[in-house]
Specification:
- This protein has 107 residues and is of the alpha/beta class.
- It has one domain: Rossmann fold, CATH 3.40.50.
- It contains four helices and three strands; from the N terminus they run H-E-H-E-H-E-H.
- Strands 1-2-3 form a three-stranded parallel sheet, sandwiched between helices.
- Helix 3 links the parallel strand 2 and strand 3.
- Helix 1 crosses helix 2.
- The termini are far apart.
């Protein structure tokens, strides 16, 4: 849209997909990455799409010292599953397992 920034366009698109299409949500906090977008989307889901809380998981890179307010505060208090990973293969295996668990919850 005219006057819309790229960032606001993708934020609106993300919110729309989360509200209208998502049945499972996976969030990945990576060491050495700017995770602000991930946490913004997580917070949006947590407060606006509560039906996703039971079928969401946050994956945390165990090699990175994330602030406890992030991993033990906001995420833990939401009741969302939280798993750690240390390698790309570990993330893949954990995400695959969580998707199977969440699919059983849904169907």
């Amino acid at each position: 849209m005219r006057g819309e920034t790229v960032g606001s366009h993708f934020w609106a698109k993300s919110c729309s997909f989360t509200q209208n299409w998502a049945e499972i949500a996976l969030y990945v906090l990576m060491c050495g990455a700017n995770n602000l977008g991930v946490m913004s989307e997580f917070n949006f889901m947590q407060y606006n799409v509560k039906s996703l809380l039971r079928t969401s998981t946050v994956f945390v890179d165990e090699n990175c010292p994330f602030p406890s307010l992030t991993t033990r505060g906001n995420i833990t208090s939401s009741g969302v599953n939280q798993r750690e990973f240390s390698t790309d293969d570990g993330l893949y295996d954990a995400a695959s397992a969580e998707c199977r668990i969440h699919l059983r919850t849904l169907y």
